[in-house]
């Protein structure tokens, strides 16, 4: 299911969700201070393109907390709302339920991405 799920995901929504992360990364990289946050966005764009078979572990320290607060204020809420809305739409169909689960995983990650490790 992982390989087939990733292929279908990329074709029917993963490309758009990955572009959302990449756009946020580009906007953050405009400033020198935001470059580390933008770099994290590009890592999460890679996850968003192909999320099946990967898990996210949350952790981090005080630096991650500060980065998450800045992220939440400026970029996290719009991305999380978008992913959650798509998750609800996908859960409306039985076939879309696995994809809805991935959208909710990305919505949670969109709120607090720093300190999270993808495995």
Automatic annotation (TrEMBL):
What UniProt keywords apply to this chain's record, in alphabetical order?
A: Membrane, Transmembrane, Transmembrane helix
Superkingdom classification of source: Bacteria
Which residue intervals define the domain Inner membrane component in the entry? 4-54, 66-115
- Where are the membrane-spanning stretches? 6-35, 56-77, 83-104
Any one Gene Ontology cellular component term annotated for this protein: plasma membrane
This chain belongs to which protein, by name?
A: Uncharacterized membrane protein YccF, DUF307 family
Recall the taxonomic lineage recorded for the source organism: Bacteria, Bacillati, Bacillota, Clostridia, Eubacteriales
């Amino acid at each position: 299911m992982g390989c087939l799920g990733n292929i279908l995901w990329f074709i029917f929504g993963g490309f758009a969700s990955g572009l959302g992360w990449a756009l946020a990364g580009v906007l953050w990289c405009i400033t020198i201070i935001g470059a580390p946050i933008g770099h994290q966005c590009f890592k999460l764009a890679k996850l968003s393109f192909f999320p099946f078979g990967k898990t996210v572990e949350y952790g981090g320290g005080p630096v991650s907390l500060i980065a998450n607060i800045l992220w939440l204020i400026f970029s996290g809420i719009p991305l999380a709302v978008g992913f959650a809305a798509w998750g609800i739409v996908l859960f409306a169909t039985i076939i879309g339920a696995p994809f809805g689960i991935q959208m909710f995983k990305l919505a949670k990650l969109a709120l607090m991405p720093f300190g999270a490790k993808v495995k």
